[in-house]
Each structure stands twice: as structure tokens, then as C-alpha cells.
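[step 3/7] fold_predict: job queued, chain A
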Amino acid sequence: MYHHKFHVGLIGLVLLAGTFSAPAFATKSSPRILTFNTISNQTIRWKLDKSEVKIGKLTPLEKIKLHRFQNVIEKQGISPKDAALKIGDTSFKLMKSHAGTYQLSLSQYNRVFFTIDYDNHTVKILQVGGNVYNNSLSYLA
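[step 4/7] structure written:
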């Protein structure tokens, strides 16, 4: 009888320990994985590509918001969505009119338009300024 209770207790401990290791087998929808940008305990570092950006005129406050967004991605390596949440009041969203293009509000008028390469963890900024994405925009501030 004592031997049987020992095995039942041991099995219970093994099962209990398994519940603590379960996050290692979590799905993509796990908040732990999304919050810390980790996959298999490797930290994902996001990069910023501004090589082809077209820039319009911005107010000083819009410039500050833009720099904060860029700095959070470049220096902290976090995702663009998390960067937008961190700087606040940006209305981060995927555009319906231009497939694969996202926008971030700098003000009621000016936006940042960019694409996200999830495979390479890169944010490519396409246009800064205006409230409509125009891939033929040619003015620079």
C-alpha cells in the first residue's frame, strides 16, 4: 500500500512539473512569445530601413514622434506594433488601399507609411508626411 502511494505521489509531481514547462510548447498566440519578441529563447531584433524614404514637411512635434518611433525600433529592436504602442496615440494600422503598407499617425494630417518584412524583421519606411500614401511623392523637407 505504501509503495502504491509513493508512485501515485511521484506521478503527481511529474505531472505538476510538466505544467510549469508547458510555456516552452506554447503556440504563436501565446502572449509570452509576442510580448517579448522571442522564438525558442532567441530574441528577435527588429531593424529599420530608411534607404528610400520620401519626407514631407513636419511640425516639430511630428518630428519628435517620428524620431521616438524610429529610435524605439533601432535602439531597442522591438516590433513596429510594439514601438507604436510604446510611444502612444499613433493609430497604427494596415492600409486597405495599398496591400502590405502600414500607416502610423503623427498628427491629424501627417502619417508615416511603411512595410514590414516579418521574415527579416525589418521595417522599411516609404514616406513621411501627408495623409495619403503616394509612391511618386518627390518633395523633401
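[step 5/7] annotate
The beta strands are 38-39, 42-43, 47-49, 54-55, 93-94, 101-105, 111-117, 122-128.
The first strand starts at residue 38 and ends at 39.
exit 0
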